[in-house]
Design a protein that fits this description.
heterodimer; A: 312 residues; alpha/beta; TIM Barrel; 8 strands; 14% strand; B: 223 residues; Rossmann fold; four-stranded parallel β-sheet; 9 strands
């Protein structure tokens, strides 16, 4: 990891300064209610280094991530623009990367995206001209070599700091780190993991990543989603594939009076953050407080991650 | 082979509601093998249509014929004698069939009685699965002989995604094996797991339907 910046985003600078980074997440609304989006995002300002804006997550139509990223920029927040390959082919993807860069967006998270059968338009046609690994390679090549997929020269290279997702809890278990390595080889400079609940399995994943030298090549951020309720914990455990919520957390949430469940969920999240940060190879935390953005300041503070570092 | 499945009777009845006499044309090719459009199915469909129309007080006459194949003009020809006496044709070949029938009879309405589902095969009695999407440039040799274009819901070439759990794909409510788990197991058996580490780049989709209508020409066979 060199000291030179590929994009010069705040996120990249914090990583390269050796400090732990914190990213948040803010999903655009299912309509064009800008004020609602800004209100949610306002809780993240000053409490995280950059904010992911999701690209039609779970294949549900929302306002687009590029517009959301631009709004964050105007609010003085740094966006991590998510982009999925489900809905656009290589022409549209590259076009959007160029447009996003032209708008001043400097962090891009390349994803394949959830299958549309989970969303609100299950009859939609999917595209999948590329997958996430190819998209990483595409943007890296546009940025570093000034070439599009076709070989056409790019007039003005998109300076993007490139990220990818990794799910340490899917199968085959022994392949998950290798697949993360493929994403790193293709261009990923930082990784945000799927929500972590099974700390034991995550620890093993990180050990493998360290052994393979991946943590020397890439900044890995542990994905944390606070459990808001017993219902949410049960839902995550039963219905989200590859999400493994241990019974011990559910027992803890059940063991406190109803009015204290949320506080207990936050306490668990803070413990997880601290445990992850203590692991070798973890460069930061990706805090996905889904529709709970107003609790982010409290969580980040309790985890001892405030104030956030200032970079030039 | 091409896998087909009968359309719901109500849908076919709606298509032919304005006609009193129709030809029901089957095919002895793929759709006979998958029990959807052969001689037996022609007889059953014709009879169901007649019964339904009789019950509705609007009797229908059917003429039945099962072509050797419906994807060859010469095998459509034997329909001539039936079609001249009929107002419309319901073809229960794969969707190639009704288009060949259409080509032969420019002034006769033709309707599909089947839904063409996939290029695939039977995996057990009464169960057919998809194995190929005719992308026009086969790459299964790179994946242990298994097709991720067809059998991965996201057509990943760098799978498996985070939705693979205990060998099952997150799409399909538990009914679909994760092809990437199968590719992984297969490459492991072959001692070629290193192939899973290679970054696979862009597929050329111009040989698929994305490149426009595909025509295959074998000069040595052309007359």
């Amino acid at each position: 990891m060199t000291a030179e910046y590929t994009a010069g985003s705040r996120l990249e600078k914090i990583f390269k300064s050796g400090q732990k980074a914190v990213t948040g997440e803010c999903g655009p609304p299912r309509g064009c209610d800008v004020e609602h989006f800004k209100h949610k995002a306002s809780f993240l300002k000053g409490n995280v280094d950059a904010v992911n804006v999701t690209d039609n997550q779970t294949a549900v139509v929302r306002f687009c991530s590029m517009a959301a990223a631009k709004i964050l920029l105007e609010m003085g927040l740094e966006p991590v623009m998510q982009m999925v390959t489900r809905d656009m082919n290589r022409i549209a993807l590259q076009s959007n990367v160029l447009g996003a860069s032209a708008l001043g967006i400097k962090n891009l998270l390349c994803l394949t995206g959830d299958h549309q059968s989970f969303g609100d338009h299950p009859q939609a046609k999917n595209v999948h001209d590329m997958d996430s690994v190819m998209l990483l390679h595409t943007v890296k090549t546009m940025r570093d070599e000034g070439k599009m997929v076709s070989g056409t020269e790019v007039q003005g290279r998109p300076k993007m700091f490139l990220g990818a997702a990794a799910n340490p809890f899917a199968d085959p278990a022994e392949f998950r780190v290798i697949r993360m390595g493929k994403k790193i080889n293709a261009g990923a400079q930082f990784i945000q993991t799927q929500c972590i609940y099974n700390m034991e399995r995550f620890r093993k994943f990180m050990e493998m990543a360290n052994d393979m030298g991946l943590t020397e090549k890439c900044y890995i951020m542990a994905g944390i989603t606070p459990l808001k309720s017993v219902g949410m914990a049960n839902y995550m455990k039963k219905f989200v594939p590859g999400l493994d919520v241990p019974d011990s957390y559910i027992t803890r949430l059940k063991g406190v009076p109803k009015e204290n469940v949320a506080a207990e969920g936050i306490k668990i999240a803070v413990e997880q953050i601290q445990e992850c940060l203590a692991m070798k190879g973890i460069s930061g935390i990706h805090l996905m407080a889904i529709e709970w953005e107003d609790h982010v300041p409290e969580i980040v503070k309790a985890a001892g991650l405030l104030p956030r570092p200032k970079v030039d | 082979m091409v896998i087909g499945e009968s359309k719901p009777l109500a849908e076919i009845l709606e298509m032919i509601k304005d006609f009193k006499k129709v030809v029901v044309a089957g095919c002895k090719g793929c759709v006979t093998v998958c029990n959807a459009g052969g001689e037996k199915e022609v007889a059953i469909l014709a009879s169901e249509l007649r019964i339904a129309r009789k019950a509705a007080g609007n009797e229908l006459e059917t003429l039945e014929y099962t072509c050797e194949r419906q994807c060859d003009p010469e095998y459509i020809e034997p329909l001539d004698d039936l079609v001249k006496d009929a107002e419309a044709v319901v073809s229960i070949a794969c969707s190639v069939g009704p288009q060949y029938v259409t080509a032969r009879y420019p002034f006769v309405p033709v309707f599909p009685g089947l839904n063409t589902i996939s290029i695939g095969g039977a995996t057990e009695h009464g169960v057919w699965k998809e194995f190929c999407q005719a992308c026009g440039s086969c790459i299964i040799g790179e994946f242990g002989g298994l097709c991720p274009i067809t059998r991965c819901a996201k057509q990943l070439l760098n799978g498996p995604c985070g939705g693979s759990s205990e060998g099952i794909c997150e799409v399909g409510k538990g009914s679909i094996p994760c092809i990437w788990q199968l590719i992984y197991d297969r490459l492991k058996n072959l001692g070629q797991l290193h192939k899973m580490q290679e970054v696979k780049l862009y597929k050329n989709w111009s040989t698929s339907r994305d490149g426009g209508l595909r025509t295959t020409i074998r000069e040595e066979l052309k007359q």
